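# step 3/5: fold
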Amino acid sequence: MPLTDQHRFGMQLAQMSRGWRAELDRRLAGLGLSQARWLVLLHLARFEEPPTQRELAQSVAVEGPTLARLLDSLESQGLVQRQAVVEDRRAKKIVLCAPARPLIEQIETIANQLRLELFEGVDEADLKTCMRVHGHILANLEKS
């Protein structure tokens, strides 16, 4: 059976996503963080207020026990801290510690440089078309 353009699109999108993440992971290897840990730090840094562990797990799209292990590791490195929530003794807020800030800046700098390289030569109109198509596919995914 011949491949359709939709099939090729899906394969290409998956390959691009894996390749992009692998290259970013390679560039960040010198910081001593696994992909899962730097991803948690980036998500955590984007919250305006410290999130609960559950909110952070949803943001990163991982299960609670997986996040708990990652937070244990980050906490032992002095990068995050769990704080009790007064209103709900079972919940914990996740707070970035001071040593995490310069690390996050390094991650962002490296990620931004890679992004600039990857989008070199990509026309703005093509990018907007691509984003519109991806948005439509994502909306369809949410309906299923």
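# step 4/5: annotate
The helical segments are 5-28, 35-45, 53-60, 64-76, 100-118, 124-143.
# step 5/5: archive (pending)
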